[in-house]
Amino acid sequence: MDFSDILSIISTDLDEVEQELEASIKSHVPLVYEISQYLLGSGGKRLRPAVLLLSSGACGRLNGKERTYSAAALELIHTATLLHDDVVDEAKLRRGKPSSNIVWGNKATVLVGDFMLAKALSLIQSCGDLELIKAVTDAAAKLAQGQVLEVMNTSNMLEVTEEVCFGIIENKTASLLESCGTVGAILAGVEDGLKHSVGQYGFNIGVAFQLTDDALDYSSTEEEFGKGVGQDLVEGKMTLPLYYSIQEASSSERSKINDVLVSKEVFNEDDLSFVRDIVGRYKGVQKTNNMAENYINNAKDAISLLPDTPYKNSLDSLADYIVDRRG
């Protein structure tokens, strides 16, 4: 099913979220709006607002400004972290065009990210619910910890373990999507067990989303992916497709991989081709995608007790889309 078809049931709600995002990034400092709009308007799928709105609907809450404010807040937090990420990673591309740090520099990019975080917290505060505030701020804290964990492990790629890889994924990506599910359920006023279950849906699709992203980094084209293919390797990030492949490689191949990862500050095309060949030979992408499928199944199981409604069906379809996408 096409992504827009999956979200058709919340299309009006998403339009309201877009309007709130536009209002939130208005500023009397022109550059703040310019940088904010550059990324917010560049074709993001609004996955996080979608999970929140669908979760809320599946739990029985279909309207209210708090849904719009919360969805916009979580998208602002996500976007702010993309800005900060691009500075930390010295990224060149974001969603198929030059990243904001390349266009405007690091200082302005970081400060606009801070502006977005402040606006997000203001939106959540305006909902007047301490449980909501805690769910969102806990996720933001985990997200920041995931970013730090990633930075800590970029200089020694070969020492990164599977546990660390999952720690980064769970904190940096899954925590915010878990919060989206939880917030949707909080807004609907359901009991704690159901809040946890819907949060687990978000957590599991978050892990699956990042696993699929990591696999695409080794298997897609730049046009499909929207950023430089092999970018994780260039940025010194050990992800699971490479990790699993290294475990299966011969001693001579591991030695050459070691030479490439340790001695190169700038990867050339031969280096990238060699590593991609190793990942292909030992099915690192396939293993990672298989693991993503397991998380998708966990996500569907987590919401299996929800009433059978169009909102719940859209959550199931969204889970399938996560692992079927090509970029």
Molecular structure report:
The chain has 327 residues and is mainly α. It has a single domain, classed as Farnesyl Diphosphate Synthase. Helices cover 76% and strands 1% of the residues. The protein is built from 17 helices and 2 strands. It has helices at 3-6, 11-24, 30-40, 47-58, 65-89, 100-104, 106-126, 130-152, 162-188, 192-219, 222-225, 231-234, 240-248, 251-263, 269-281, 284-302, 310-324; strands at 93-94, 97-98. A two-stranded antiparallel sheet has the order 1-2. Helix 8 (130-152) packs antiparallel against helix 9 (162-188). The protein is globular, with a radius of gyration of 20 Å. The model has no long low-confidence stretch (mean pLDDT 92).
Major sheet description: 2 strands, antiparallel
- Low-pLDDT runs of 5+ residues are none
Structural class: mainly alpha
Please write the string of helix (H) and strand (E) elements.
HHHHHEEHHHHHHHHHHHH
Radius of gyration: 20 Å
CATH architecture assignment name: Orthogonal Bundle
| CATH topology title | Farnesyl Diphosphate Synthase
Kindly list the characteristics that best describe this protein:
single chain; 327 residues; mainly alpha; Farnesyl Diphosphate Synthase; two-stranded antiparallel sheet; 17 helices; 76% helix; globular
Ordered list of secondary-structure elements with their pairings:
Layout (H helix, E strand, L loop, with lengths): L2 H4 L4 H14 L5 H11 L6 H12 L6 H25 L3 E2 L2 E2 L1 H5 L1 H21 L3 H23 L9 H27 L3 H28 L2 H4 L5 H4 L5 H9 L2 H13 L5 H13 L2 H19 L7 H15 L3
Antiparallel strand pairs: 1-2
Helix pairs in contact: 2-5, 3-7, 4-5, 4-9, 4-17, 5-7, 5-8, 5-9, 8-9, 9-10, 10-16, 13-15, 13-16, 16-17
